[in-house]
Specification:
This protein is 45% helix and 16% strand. The protein has helices at 16-22, 43-46, 51-62, 68-78, 111-115, 118-128, 145-153, 172-179, 195-207, 209-217, 230-249, 269-280, 296-303, 328-335, 340-353, 360-363, 376-390, 396-412, 430-437, 447-458, 464-469, 485-493, and strands spanning 5-7, 13-14, 31-33, 91-94, 97-101, 134-140, 159-166, 186-192, 220-223, 259-264, 284-291, 305-307, 355-357, 369-373, 418-422, 478-481. Helix 7 links the parallel strand 6 (134-140) and strand 7.
Length: 495
């Protein structure tokens, strides 16, 4: 099956490698596969593969203009000793759920799973397409993408990476990880605003012909490391197939049994990957979309209204503090019959009016999804109760998914085996995690004192990513207003 990638806003169609290079379509749309391939084999056979072997098969089914040799080199370069466990993404059974640990990479967050391989995919794509300009990765982050992208692209020849993040919208550890990032081609800029401000401004820069001309004259071209890039999205599909196969291999389920998947969700890319896995034929019952109090997605699945016109709330799960979930556009395109005109109208309404409402016919196609949200108190209570019952410590984003799933299970009576995407190490959000499980012991401790306490409480060794930033010098300290982001990009690139 030869799969191309089509824009959600026009009939523009490109190859997989071209879609990875471009990141965002020139018309402002996102690239989606023209077809979803079937699972690349029988589930019983797939359950016997290593993560690397499975990644080669699943990604090969989507990225059809890459040769097997090219993809193998990408996979072997990405999923190596930078992950601290040989299975790459363990599935751990605790207190009635299966936690898919996606945080064993170099920056201890799920973004590593895709951003470890994206530089290999992108440089391979550049060679395949005869691209000689410097590739500029331009991205906004709500906390994790920035560090993971920089770690992946640091000192990769022929690339520059510029990351914008909200100055007061990430955890102290997330910020320390970013501002200490090494690499002569890495640039980190804080903005006075929130993540949605940063993400919207980055999209405008991508779509600005004057900016493209300016950086083109400087020998550069833009691409993206956000989950809007199919080079991010496709690798994420792998770990949901992997999680199912682990349950089969471990004797927890039989091949063909259905499971639920619960994902803490902000920009919608991670759960969209699970949706594509289900579309491939993975036996999934419900996709449970878990939001924090910024519950624009939970409301959407409940009512069919997507409305960002609400207060933006900073929470203890900052990677989910998002009101404009960019990847939802891919799902909207699919449920409106792959019609770019209709999809564009919805996105125009969101941009100009701050909201849109889907039809009843479209809503009927969302039966695979269940939306839910958890407030701070429910999240903290769930983290504490899980620790008290099992000794297992989760971070605040996984905590949201845990709380939403447990409420769903109580209210629905659904006892189906459930995989919860565990998206970050608790060490990345130590202050909040300690606030949940041992608040009486937190007083007077700084970030690293809380990390020491978490190590004592959890019995889990401190990840190298945390040890590294204890003494790493700050290399990036620029702060700009949102309207100054384009000129800052030009300054960095000498354009």
């Amino acid at each position: 099956m030869d799969i191309k990638y089509r824009s959600t806003r026009s009939n523009l169609e490109v190859t997989a490698s071209e879609a990875i290079l471009q990141g965002l379509s020139e018309d402002g749309g996102l690239f989606v596969p023209t077809a979803v391939p079937p699972l690349p084999g029988d589930l019983r056979d797939l359950a016997g593969l290593t993560y690397q072997e499975l990644a080669l098969k699943v990604m090969g089914a989507f990225l059809t203009d890459f040769t097997e040799e090219e993809l193998r080199a990408c996979v072997e370069g990405a999923y190596d000793s930078k992950f601290d466990v040989p299975e790459i993404a363990p599935v751990v059974k605790k207190d009635g759920a299966y936690y898919l640990e996606l945080f064993h990479g170099s920056t201890i967050a799920f973004k590593d799973m895709a951003l470890s391989i994206l530089p290999y995919l992108m440089t391979t794509a550049a060679r395949k397409n005869g691209e000689h300009k410097k590739i500029v990765i331009l991205t906004a982050t709500s906390g994790d993408t920035g560090k993971a992208a920089m770690a992946g692209f640091a000192d990769v020849p022929g690339t520059e990476i510029i990351v914008f993040y909200p100055k007061d919208g990430v955890s102290h550890i997330q910020e320390k990880q970013m501002v200490t990032q090494r690499g002569e081609n890495t640039h980190v800029v804080a903005i006075r605003g929130n993540f949605d401000d940063a993400q919207s401004a980055v999209k405008k820069i991508f779509n600005d012909p004057v900016m493209r001309e300016r950086i083109g004259a400087a020998g550069c071209r833009f691409s993206s490391a956000n989950s809007i890039n199919v080079g991010r999205l496709v690798p994420q599909i792998v770990y949901y197939v992997w999680a199912y196969c682990r349950l089969v291999a471990q004797g927890e389920i039989e091949a063909g049994d259905k499971i639920n998947i619960t994902v803490p969700t902000g920009n919608f890319g991670n759960i969209l990957a699970a949706y594509y896995a289900k579309e491939m034929g993975l036996p999934v019952n419900k996709l449970i979309c878990a939001s924090n109090i910024n519950k624009v997605l939970a409301d959407f699945f409940e009512t069919g209204d997507y409305d960002r016109r609400r207060d933006f709330v900073l929470t203890s799960s900052p990677s989910m503090d998002i009101l404009i979930s960019s990847n939802l556009e891919r799902l909207i395109y699919r449920i409106c019959g792959n019609d770019p005109v209709r999809c564009s109208a919805f996105m125009k309404s969101l941009s100009e009016e701050g909201a849109y409402h889907i039809t009843d016919e479209m809503r009927a196609q969302l039966s695979d999804f269940r939306g839910g949200f958890a407030e701070e108190a429910e999240n903290f209570a769930g983290i504490r109760e899980l620790y008290e019952r099992s000794g297992y410590v989760i971070d605040t984003h996984t905590g949201i998914a845990n709380a939403v799933w447990r409420r769903y299970a109580r209210e629905s009576g659904d006892t189906m085996p459930t995989v919860i995407a565990s998206t970050a190490s608790p060490y990345k959000f130590a202050a909040s995690v300690i606030g949940a499980i041992a608040p009486d012991r937190a007083e007077g401790k700084d970030d690293f004192g809380l990390i020491d306490l978490l190590r004592e409480i959890s019995g889990v060794p401190e990840p190298p990513a945390i040890t590294d930033i204890r003494t790493a010098p700050v290399r990036h300290n620029t702060v700009v207003d949102v309207q100054d982001m384009p000129e800052e990009v030009c300054r960095i690139l000498g354009a």
